[in-house]
Amino acid sequence: MPVKHIRGVDIVYEVIGDRGPWVTVTPGGRRGLVGERPLASLIAEAGYRVLIHDRRNMGASGIAFPGDNESFEQAEDLLALLRELGTGAAYIAGSSSGARMSLLLAHHHPDAVKALLLWRVTGGEYAAKRLAFNYYEQFLDAVAAGGIEAVMATEHFAAMIAANPVNGETLRRMGAEVFAAAMRRWLGGFREGCDYPVAGLSPEEMRKMTVPAIVIPGNDRVHPPAGAQAAHRLLPNSVYREVLTQQVDVDVDFEGWARATGTLAARFIDFLRGRERL
Known about the structure:
Elements: E1 3-6, E2 9-16, E3 22-26, H1 37-45, E4 49-53, H2 70-85, E5 90-95, H3 97-108, E6 113-119, H4 125-152, H5 155-163, H6 166-193, H7 203-207, E7 213-216, H8 225-234, E8 238-240, H9 254-259, H10 261-277
């Protein structure tokens, strides 16, 4: 799989399709590019070139923790990757944490974004607490209990090391103290924006974003419809479409969204074709 050295870290990526406008698809959580390859493939079949990638600290990409905000760093990485590939402005699609990243890219670099395709937008108190633990606090607990070796034994980082053994060497060189400081810094950055109706950006910032968008709500505890409804209300040039309307009492409805991939792709393809006709 191709790799680009982006902003100090190796980023693994894949392009599906060889013609048409560029679309990027980014999954939620700390999932790698395989998480949305089925969706990306369906969009590519409709005549688009679709970029998927392992964000830093995910999948087989490299490990580095710069700055104060993880989603902002991911957005800057994606911008740099698009520029390396010479795509020009692209359609930016993202789910959950991928949606936060996409919104930040559009906020800071609107000229790089043709339109946003957002689904399972994160918002609310439950999501804020749960994601703070999933992304940062569990790793702070691990490093406090057993140093960097305990971090390397966690499910997430063990998978990263299995995918790319260089990541184990990177963590050992980094050491417990530097790793813990990075997690505390990124946890602080996450908490700064987690209480907004749409996690990551203030309502004032959202209202100033004029990029076209389609917003599709989630259906579980971490992705309640209220987050997407707020995004639609705040984004002045957005449309609201639904895919899964039955709410389920789980943190993340992975199975439901896997079954709905075809419907989700159809919603996005309709939107993309509409934008291309303008």
